[in-house]
Design goal:
The structure holds three protein chains of three kinds.
Chain A (H helix, E strand, L loop, with lengths): L1 H47 L4 H5 L2 E2 L4 E2 L2 H32 L4 H15 L2 H15 L6 H25 L3 H9 L4 H30 L2 H4 L21 H10 L6 H32 L3
Antiparallel strand pairs in A: 1-2
Chain B lengths: L5 H14 L17 E7 L4 H14 L3 E6 L3 H9 L5 E4 L5 H9 L4 E16 L6 E3 H9 L16 E5 L4 H11 L15 E3 L2 H10 L3 E6 L7 E3 L1 E3 L11 H5 L6 E9 L4 H11 L1 H9 L8
Parallel strand pairs in B: 1-2, 1-3, 5-10, 6-7, 6-8
Antiparallel strand pairs in B: 3-11, 4-8, 4-9, 4-11
Chain C lengths: L1 H47 L2 H4 L4 E2 L4 E2 L2 H32 L2 H16 L2 H20 L7 H25 L3 H9 L4 H12 L1 H16 L3 H6 L20 H8 L8 H39 L1
Helix pairs in contact in C: 1-12, 3-6, 3-9, 4-6, 5-6, 6-9, 7-8, 9-12, 11-12
Classes of the chains: A mainly alpha, B alpha/beta, C mainly alpha.
Chain lengths: 292, 296, 302
C-alpha cells in the first residue's frame, strides 16, 4: 500500500517535472518564433502601404527619396537568374558525381570537406574573392556577371549538398533494374535517378537561390551600383539590387521617407517568402506523389 | 572609359568554357533603348546624393548619356579611378600624393576639378543644451581628453563620439583640420572608442535618439532632427553656424572643396558633363542640396 | 554503321562522365582558388607590417596602425554573445519541434524557422538600426544603442535556424526503438529526451552548434549596421554593452578605400585569411565529428 503510494507520488512528481520541462521548451520555441512572426508582420504591414504599381514599376526620383524601385527589382532578378545559370548545372553535376560516380575514397572525402568549408566561408570573403578574380583579374568590372558568378560560388555548397541528398534518397533497386536492362551508367542517372530526385533538387536550388537573393556583402564590391538611371542592358553592366538598395536607403540617403524604406524591405521580403513558398510547395507535393 | 574590349570578351569566353556553362546574356528589352554612352561615377559618400541629383538632371536633359553613380567613400572612388573601373571619381578631399603616385605608376594621370564647396557641421541631439564649441574643445572631445558633457557646459552625461568611416574624405579632413587643428606635425588620433559609422545618414539616425552623442556631417546631410553647433576658431569667438555665406566669407572654420577627378584630361561626353556641372544649372542643384556653389 | 553509332554514344557517355567528374572536383578547386587568392593578396601584409604591429591594440589603417587584436576580439565577443543566445534557444526549439510538438504544430514551426533562415541580413540590420538600437538605448540606459550586444542579438537570431534545422535532423535520426525501449522501462518522455535522445544525437547537436557559430562569424551587413564599428579593445564583459568593430565589418567598410596593392589593401585581405582560417577550423571540427559518426555507424552496421 505505502509502496504503491510512494510510487504514485514519485510518478506525480516526475509528471510535474515533465510539465515544467515541456513548458520551458515551449517558451524557448516561442522566443524563437515570435520575433519571426513579428518581423515579417511588421515589415509587410508597414511596407504594403508604400507598395503600389507605381512603386514597383518606376525609377527612383528626387535622389531616391521618391518614385519607385524598379531598377533594384530588375537587378535582383537578373542577379538571381545569373546565379542560377552558373550555379545550378555545376552544382547538380557535382552532386551527381558524389552520389552516383565517386568511389568512397580519401579523395571524395576531401571533396566533401571542401564543400563543407565552402559553405562556411563568410560572405564578405566571397566578396573579396569575386573582386579579385572576376572584377579585377578577369576584367569584368563591376557587373552583373561578376556579381552573379560570386553569388554562384557562394550558392554551390547548398545546391550540391541538397541535390546529393535527393539523389541518395532514390532507392538503389531502381538503379539495379535499369543497369540490368542494359542501360548505361549515364542513362540510368538521367532517365531514372534524376527524374525521381527532381523535386528534392528543385527544393535545394530554390533555397540556395533564396540566400543569394538576400546577400549584400558579396555584391558590394562586385555588382552593386548606388543609382542607375536606366536598366542594365548587358551582363557587363553594373546594376542596382534590392538588398544593397535597402542598405543604401537605410544608411546613406538623408531625409529618406520611412515608407520607402519599409516598402523596399517588404519587396525584398516578399521575394524571399515567395521562394520559400515555392520550395515548401514542391516538397509537400513530391511527398504526396512519392512512389516508394 | 571602360569599354567592352575584345580582351574582356575572350576572358569571358574562357571562363564560360572553364566552368562548363554559358553565361546567357539578358537581352536589352525593346522599351529600354541602349544609351550611346555610359559615364561611370563613384566615390565620396558626402557627394553621392549631389552626384545623384546631377546625374538625374543631366540624364533628363540628355537622354543619350547614361550615368552610373555609386558611393563608397572618396578613397573608394580614387582607387577605382586608378584601377580604371570608373570615369569620374568623386572626392571630398584632395587626392593624396601616394594615390597620385600610384595612379601615375599605372599610367593614369588624375586631373582635379573643383565642383562644389561644403561646410562640415558639428551636430548634437536636439535636446542637448550645449550651443557652441571652439575647435580646441572639439579636438579634445574627439581625441578622448574630454569625456563628459559637463566639461563643455552641458549635462553630466558621457560623450558618445560619432564619426564617419576612415575611407571617407570627411573623416580625413576632420582629423587633419579639427583634431590636429591643421598642424601637419600633430599625431593626435581619434579616441579608440569613437563609433565609425558606414555613412553620413548613420550619424544623423543615431543623433536622432541619442542625447549623449556628438557627430559631424556635411552640411547637405543635416536635417531638422539634429542641432547644429556654432563654432569658433578660439574662445574669443566669433561663434558662427555653417551656411553658404559664412563659408564663402571664411568666418565658418570647417569648410572644404569637393572634387571630381578624371583619368587624364576630360574630353568628349565627360568634359561636356563637367562643364554642365559648373554651369549655373548644375550649381543651382548644389545650393538646393545644402552645399555651397563654386564661383558664386 | 552500327558500330559507329555505338561508338558515338560511347563517346558521349565518356564526355558526360568526364564533365560530371570535373564538376565534382570543382568544389575543391574553388576552395583552393579562394584560399590561394586570399594568400596571394594577403601574405604581403606579413612582410610589410611587422608582426608586433599586427598584434598591436590599435586599428587605424590610414595612419599606419594595423593592430588586428581589437577587431579579432570584437568578432569573438559578438560571436560569443550570439552563441549564448542562439545555442540554448536553438537546441530547445529543436527538441521541442522533434520530441514534444504535436504533428500539426510541427508542420507550422518548421517553415517558420526556414523563413528566418532566409531573412536577408541587411533586412535584419535595417530593423536593428530603426527599432532595436533605440529600444536598447532607452531600456538598458546604455550610452548608445549601437553595441556588441545589439549585434549579438541579431546574430543570435541569424544563427538559430542553422542550429535548429541541423539539430532537429539529428534528433529525428535517433532510432524510434531507443525511445520505445525506454518507455517500456517506465521512463517519462522528459527523461527520455534528456537521457536517451539527446545523448544519442550528441554529435549532431554539436555539429549544429558549430555550424551556427560559423554562420555567425561570417555575418557582415547586419553586424556592420548595428555594432557601432569602434575598434576598441574589448577587455571586460562590460564591453558587450559598448561598441565594437568586427573583422567582417572592417573588410566591408574599408575594402573599396584602397588602391590595389597598398599595405592597407593587403592587410584587409589578411583579415580575410584570418576569417577564412577560423571558419575553416570550425568547419573542419564539425566535419570530423560527422565523419566520426559515420565510421562508427558503419562499424556497427557491418
Amino acid at each position: 500500500m505505502t509502496a504503491t503510494h510512494a510510487a504514485t507520488l514519485r510518478s506525480r512528481r516526475r509528471h510535474r517535472t515533465q510539465q515544467v520541462g515541456f513548458g520551458l521548451l515551449a517558451a524557448a520555441t516561442l522566443l524563437t518564433v515570435v520575433p519571426i512572426i513579428f518581423i515579417v508582420g511588421l515589415v509587410l504591414l508597414r511596407g504594403l502601404t508604400a507598395i503600389s504599381g507605381e512603386f514597383l514599376l518606376t525609377f527612383p526620383t528626387d535622389g531616391m527619396r521618391a518614385g519607385g524601385i524598379l531598377p533594384a527589382i530588375v537587378g535582383t532578378f537578373w542577379l538571381t537568374i545569373g546565379t542560377a545559370v552558373a550555379a545550378v548545372p555545376v552544382g547538380i553535376a557535382a552532386a551527381i558525381y558524389l552520389a552516383e560516380y565517386a568511389p568512397d575514397s580519401r579523395w571524395t572525402r576531401t571533396i566533401r570537406v571542401a564543400i563543407i568549408n565552402l559553405a562556411g566561408v563568410p560572405s564578405v570573403v566571397y566578396g573579396l574573392f569575386g573582386l579579385g578574380l572576376f572584377v579585377l583579374f578577369l576584367r569584368f568590372g563591376t557587373s552583373i556577371l561578376a556579381g552573379s558568378l560570386t553569388l554562384a560560388i557562394m550558392t554551390l555548397p547548398v545546391v550540391i549538398s541538397t541535390t546529393e541528398e535527393a539523389l541518395r534518397a532514390v532507392p538503389s533497386s531502381f538503379r539495379v533494374v535499369s543497369i540490368s536492362l542494359g542501360g548505361t551508367h549515364w542513362q540510368t542517372v538521367r532517365r531514372i535517378v534524376l527524374p525521381q530526385a527532381l523535386s528534392g533538387i528543385m527544393t535545394g536550388v530554390v533555397l540556395g537561390l533564396e540566400r543569394a537573393v538576400g546577400e549584400t556583402a558579396p555584391i558590394l564590391f562586385t555588382a552593386a551600383a548606388f543609382y542607375l538611371p536606366t536598366l542594365p542592358t548587358s551582363p557587363l553592366d553594373p546594376t542596382m539590387a534590392l538588398p544593397y538598395h535597402l542598405f543604401v536607403i537605410s544608411t546613406q540617403v538623408p531625409g529618406m521617407p520611412i515608407g520607402i524604406q519599409y516598402g523596399t524591405a517588404a519587396v525584398l521580403l516578399m521575394f524571399v517568402l515567395a521562394m520559400n513558398l515555392i520550395a515548401t510547395v514542391i516538397r509537400s507535393r513530391s511527398r504526396a506523389k512519392r512512389q516508394w | 572609359m571602360p569599354t567592352h574590349s575584345a580582351k574582356r570578351q575572350t576572358s569571358l569566353l574562357a571562363l564560360g568554357l572553364l566552368l562548363g556553362f554559358c553565361a546567357c546574356a539578358p537581352s536589352p528589352s525593346p522599351t529600354n533603348p541602349v544609351p550611346a554612352v555610359t559615364i561611370v561615377n563613384k566615390g565620396s559618400d558626402t557627394m553621392v546624393n549631389l552626384a545623384l541629383a546631377w546625374a538625374e538632371a543631366y540624364h533628363a536633359a540628355r537622354p543619350s548619356v547614361n550615368l552610373s553613380v555609386t558611393g563608397g567613400g572618396s578613397g573608394t572612388g580614387i582607387a577605382a579611378l586608378v584601377n580604371r573601373t570608373v570615369d569620374l571619381a568623386n572626392a571630398s578631399r584632395a587626392i593624396k600624393p601616394e594615390e597620385r603616385a600610384e595612379a601615375e605608376s599605372r599610367g593614369v594621370d588624375s586631373i582635379e576639378h573643383v565642383v562644389a564647396r561644403d561646410a562640415i557641421a558639428v551636430i548634437v541631439h536636439r535636446d542637448n543644451p550645449v550651443q557652441q564649441l571652439t575647435l580646441q574643445q572639439i579636438s579634445d572631445i574627439y581625441s578622448g581628453k574630454i569625456n563628459r558633457w559637463s566639461e563643455v557646459g552641458g549635462l553630466d552625461k558621457p560623450i558618445v563620439r560619432l564619426s564617419r568611416e576612415t575611407n571617407s574624405g570627411t573623416h580625413v579632413y576632420f582629423l587633419e583640420q579639427v583634431l590636429r587643428l591643421g598642424n601637419p606635425d600633430d599625431r593626435t588620433l581619434f579616441a579608440a572608442d569613437t563609433l565609425l559609422l558606414p555613412s553620413s545618414e548613420g550619424i544623423t539616425t543615431e543623433l536622432g535618439y541619442n542625447e549623449n552623442a556628438i557627430g559631424y556631417d556635411g552640411l547637405g546631410y543635416v536635417t531638422d532632427a539634429v542641432r547644429v553647433l556654432a563654432i569658433a576658431r578660439s574662445s574669443q569667438g566669433p561663434y558662427t553656424r555653417p551656411s553658404a555665406e559664412t563659408v564663402n566669407n571664411d568666418t565658418y572654420p570647417i569648410s572644404r572643396d569637393l572634387y571630381m577627378y578624371s583619368a587624364g584630361q576630360a574630353e568628349g561626353e565627360i568634359l561636356a558633363y563637367l562643364q554642365w556641372i559648373l554651369s549655373p544649372e548644375g550649381q543651382a542643384i548644389v545650393a538646393d542640396l545644402g552645399f555651397v556653389p563654386v564661383g558664386g | 554503321m552500327r558500330t559507329r553509332r555505338w561508338s558515338r554514344s560511347a563517346y558521349l557517355e565518356f564526355a558526360i562522365t568526364q564533365t560530371i567528374r570535373v564538376a565534382g572536383y570543382s568544389a575543391v578547386v574553388f576552395v583552393f582558388a579562394i584560399f590561394a587568392f586570399l594568400l596571394a593578396e594577403g601574405a604581403p601584409a606579413l612582410r610589410e607590417v611587422p608582426l608586433r604591429d599586427l598584434l598591436g591594440s590599435r586599428w587605424y589603417p590610414i595612419e599606419g596602425f594595423y593592430g588586428l587584436i581589437p577587431i579579432l576580439l570584437g568578432t569573438l565577443l559578438v560571436t560569443l554573445g550570439a552563441a549564448l543566445i542562439a545555442v540554448p534557444l536553438g537546441i530547445a526549439t529543436a527538441v521541442f519541434i522533434a520530441e514534444v510538438a504535436p504533428r500539426g504544430l510541427r508542420e507550422t514551426l518548421k517553415p517558420l524557422v526556414e523563413i528566418l533562415a532566409g531573412l536577408p541580413s541587411v533586412l535584419l540590420g535595417f530593423l536593428g538600426i530603426t527599432l532595436l538600437a533605440p529600444q536598447l538605448y532607452a531600456f538598458l540606459g546604455l550610452s548608445t544603442g549601437l553595441t556588441a550586444f545589439t549585434g549579438a542579438l541579431l546574430l543570435g537570431w541569424i544563427a538559430i535556424p542553422t542550429i535548429v534545422s541541423v539539430a532537429e535532423d539529428s534528433l529525428d535520426a535517433v532510432p524510434r526503438t531507443y525511445r520505445e525501449a525506454a518507455l517500456a522501462l517506465g521512463a517519462t518522455r522528459w527523461q527520455i529526451i534528456w537521457r536517451v535522445t539527446l545523448p544519442a544525437a550528441r554529435s549532431g547537436v554539436l555539429v549544429a552548434v558549430m555550424l551556427g557559430i560559423g554562420r555567425g562569424l561570417g555575418e557582415t551587413m547586419a553586424v556592420m549596421m548595428v555594432t557601432g564599428n569602434a575598434a576598441v579593445l574589448p577587455t571586460t564583459l562590460g564591453s558587450l554593452f559598448r561598441p565594437v568593430r568586427t573583422m567582417t565589418a572592417t573588410i566591408a567598410a574599408e575594402m573599396g578605400e584602397v588602391a590595389n596593392g597598398s599595405v592597407h589593401y593587403h592587410t584587409l585581405f589578411l583579415i580575410g585569411i584570418v576569417l577564412f582560417l577560423i571558419s575553416w577550423l570550425v568547419n573542419l571540427a564539425a566535419a570530423s565529428v560527422v565523419f566520426r559518426i559515420r565510421t562508427r555507424a558503419e562499424r556497427v552496421l557491418s
